[in-house]
Design goal:
about 325 residues, alpha/beta, 7-stranded mixed beta sheet, 5-stranded parallel beta sheet, 8 helices
Amino acid sequence: MDQPLMVFTGQSNPALAREICANLGIPLGKSTTEKFANDNLFVRFEESLRSADVFIVQSLTPPVHEHLMELLMMIDAAKGSSAARVTAVIPYYSYARSDKKDAPRISIAGRLVADLIQTAGADRVLTMTLHSPQVHGFFKIPMDHLSAEPVIANYFATRVEDLERSVIVAPDAGDLKRASSLARRLALPLAFIDKQRLSDTEVAARALVGDVKGKNALIIDDEISTAGSLVKAVDTVLEAGAKQAYAAVTHGVYVGPAVERIEKSPVIEVAATNTCATANQKSRKLQTLSVGPLFAEAIWRIHRGESVSSLFT
């Protein structure tokens, strides 16, 4: 493309944005975000965007609504500054959990947020590992949906001793497709836990389907929020005779009691990619996997008008 490539970041995950730019070999764009005394936000780009191919990096992590509003304002400001194209790079799209009307008188917030992003003026969206893949269909603009599976597979392959004596475990039936794909990639058997959610922070395991006895249980999930599901999954596989348990997820949100629960759990290690900033979450058990190069490659291909489908798996 003739348009210059420019990458900017909101306040949610500037470290990932800097890593993306380092891999692209370009400087991170200059922008300012301020909060007024009345809690209103103010955003401004500090350089010309005219005719540029603009990518704005912003994960929807806590405070979610402040980060969402900042993203919307940055998109709007970029369109108003005559950018040729604006791509919202949302490594963690938290509202993907709200994808259906499963109770009366509720909002399908995943669709609402998609509408807001499009109304703000985004021409394209780039994200990673949606909790509910059908959220992809809420967007009427092009969306590229990356997978962290290659990064997670490499983590297990290089970190877990005696990998051939391991089994991939899905913490609930909803994660079976993702876990099955990883199991095929690593040539390992598959197991899953039949889980009942009691509340936003509490779950109960009803049954374990598959053989984990004497094996390394490698638990795979899309995200860790309060770590309730993870801790219950670890307890379940160890009670079923697993030798030890590791876990890897795409999004390490780590809110509320998450880190404390992980510290007290017998899980050996928990790895998450850097789609969510975790600078304030300290634990000897937490490992961070980089997806900066993957996002950089996707951005470069989008900018060049090339296919990114090979990065989806």
